[in-house]
Amino acid sequence: MKADISELPMSTCDKPMPLGHCLAQWARNYGDRIALINETGQCLSYAQLHDRVEHIASGLHAAGLRAGDHAMVHMPNTFGFFYSFFALLRVGVIPVMAMPNQREQDIDALMALAQPTAYFIPDDVGEHDYLTLAQRMQARHESLRLVVMDGDVEHETRNVQILTALKGSACPWPEQDGRDTAVLLLSGGTTGMPKLIPRTHGDYFYNFTASARLCGFDREMVFLAVLPAAHNFTLASPGVLGTFQCGGTVVTSVSASCDEAMPLIEKYKVTHVALVPPLAKLWVEGREWEDSDLSSLKLIQVGGARLEAGLARQLVDVIGCKLQQVFGMAEGLLCYTRLDDPLNTIIQTQGRPLSPKDEVRIVDEDDHDVPEGQAGQLLTRGPYTIRGYFRAPVQNASSFTEDGFYRSGDLVRRDANGNLIVEGRIKEQINRCGEKISTAEIEEAISLLHGVHVAAAVGVPDELLGERICVFIKPEGSQTIDPLHIKTALREGGLSDYKVPDQIETIFEWPLTAAKKVDKRRLVAVALQRASVSPDAKSSSYLHESMTTNAPPFELAVKVAEVIRHETINYVLYERHGEWTLGLECAMRITVDSDGTVCRSDGNSWRSTSVSESIEQALADIPFDNWRAYGRAEFEFAYLTYGLENPHSAGPLLTIVIPKSEIRIRLGTVQLRTLDSAEMPQLVAIVEAAEKNGLPRVDSPIALDVRSTGSVQYRDIVASAVQDMRQGRYQKVILSRAVEIPSGVDMVASYYAGRKSNTPVRSFLLKDGEFQAYGFSPEIVVTVDAEGNVATQPLAGTRALTGAPEKDQQLRKELESDVKEIAEHAVSVKLAVQEMLQACQAESVVVDEFMTVQERGSVQHLASHVKGVLTPGASAWTAFEKLFPAVTASGIPKREALESINRHEGRARGLYSGCVLIAESDGSLDAALVLRSAYRDAGRASLQAGAGLVPHSTPEREWEETCEKLTSVGPYLISSKEH
């Protein structure tokens, strides 16, 4: 419904108005001028934008949204974002501005805090299923009544409406004044808890109008929005709203990459753009190959983080237009360098406050003002700075002083002209002998030196100095870092002696926090550990070398394994996510014995109340940087964690190996890593030899009848276990049977032949002395990433996969409707959730995929996916201990199922139904269930498979299921050339 713009009260450019009235005012003032252009060239005038927003606002009002409600906007820089944002303001609904790159955990937490009535999402983009996410949010959050999708296709899903299809009668104007909350912005803080910033109509109107005047915006300008428009910098500093206030044009882009954004500058004669420092650096580098005409650019604004002076100068020189530094926060205060400032001021400072009424204090740790020119914490209050976060009383108590100043957390100093220079964050300073030293200053000085790619400085506890300065340096290419040379160069460059690092370390891969920033707390731990190592046990770093290859990764990995098996090298090959990675030989070994003792090959041992805690301690001070460990856990490890007698295996029950060398193979590249520089030529020779060699011959298959033996015995133990379950002793158990392989097996050739015919989630091939194994894992036991996100994938319910489409479809329908299989799967998922809750934050545990069908080689399974986030203080090994063994391998409850397995099978399972794993120094873990596998030890070779039993099971069906699973491996066994 188109509103009569003439009925609205007129406003001058300077007079504040409710933000919902702004678009109507702009449509009156600028009418047919172009307001928006997207990357496809579609244009909207101010009048057209206003007309469409009025239609949508009327539809939102008809759908029940009312002034004062909250609505989350989770959209990229498309027309749909602006339709949604302005329509919500028009109705009087408060937009909650989520970032496009935020995923379920963040959105869930923001939903819990803001309790929105509506959720605005884009049509699905790439791998991101926004509609499914929205449906999960509706299931969890009672307040969420409406989902609005920016798409062209009608969705039949209840409570989902299409943005541009919304209709209704004329929307009434809400009653608002300048003190009412207009928008909730997302805080950029680092506490880990979501914080929302309530900006009022009055303060936000001033935010973008005053900024636009200061920055020289006018109606002839064209602003390119490459950063998310939901961010305060892009939206209103002065950004999109400042451009509209002046009648200019906004060009939207969902990509900020040089090859997509720079052609838009040329095509639409863009005059203004806002960047963050990392993007500015990429744009500078991109001009080496991207040759779009950027001559229309008049101003590049850089903000969001501290801009180093060197990069600032490069930006001016390479792009060739004016630079303006912007320093501020979504909480309020904005500082700008002025357009007529001397170049040195623009390069070296972050500007001065926007408003003459902005109050800025620079204080010490006791909140006393520091002498002029010295660095301290920035406190601020002013006409557009908030007085408190939304629904955050605890955070407000620490973030605001009693007299209303906001504690920004920034470490700044002020020059004689009132410009602020950002030195870093409060926690990013080192107290050395009473001197407060900015880590940013040291990092910048070292980054300018030859051979240094990037540096990070930390304060390390020191008995003499209080804190000593430690710098970690990532070298440029193959450069070698000489600490003495670094110190000399810093002194010659004019750095004060007390700021010269006391400890300098080389690093090749950074430990990262959940926010993908360098984890300085972990760097402190590494610095302490390295300093404590004796000279003859010096900490080592992996040397790196890369090779290019045209060989398919799987085939090259197999050929490498073929080469190294003739060298009597122990190795583990592990496949995940398109990478085949080999760990070669052992630099350090960690084992878990049957009594729970964790031993390390350097003579240290640990025995704690929890095995996971002992493993963590053993891995805590590994004297190698950025290690990747390869491990395996026998099924009998479960008896230890559940406190049961283990009559079959004396151990070790779990083995973790830090390799001496690695070969990591991905499409087009091979990365070599080794602790011994003398080994690097050998690694190169191995890969080169593998590239020249042919693949293993697979023309000598072993004839193996998986139905020939064990039928009666297996059916008998199935019948016994079913009777147990019908008597209520447990709900589910997996009983297995082994099949001996009658002749010698070529493990590498068999792995190659079998992998070509299987579709595993992971695969592996390993050799440890006389023990060898390979397999095609149908599921993960647990994965934990560096940010603490945990996942497990219970499979339960099985039918054959024959390769005949009609037959397989029939079996799939049978599987999806079989009451026994569905019941078996449901109890497995329930247990997985219960176990995840023992390691994860309760509110984070969700079943995000339920009872889909996964095809794995000769079998199709019912599969679900459960995920969560580790509780504070828990590690990947906590989750491993709680989830091992996989429910697919044991039963429910696990303790009773383990006793049943022990009683009925009467032998050690070993690696079968245990796991193979990779663990990394960043705290991540990837453990794959060992099922579709072959084993060879001391001349004996075998296969093993089991079936999940529930009270409805029959011996005949479960026998058949083991046969189906054995055919994932059995037909692809290749005879060894030695036999």
From TrEMBL:
It holds the Pfam family Chorismate_bind. Pathway: Siderophore biosynthesis. Keywords: Ligase. The keyword Ligase applies. Residues 441-517 form the AMP-binding enzyme C-terminal domain. One of its GO terms (molecular function) is oxo-acid-lyase activity. Residues 713-965 form the Chorismate-utilising enzyme C-terminal domain. Residues 24-390 form the AMP-dependent synthetase/ligase domain. The keyword DNA repair does not apply. This is Salicylate synthase. It comes from Orrella marina.
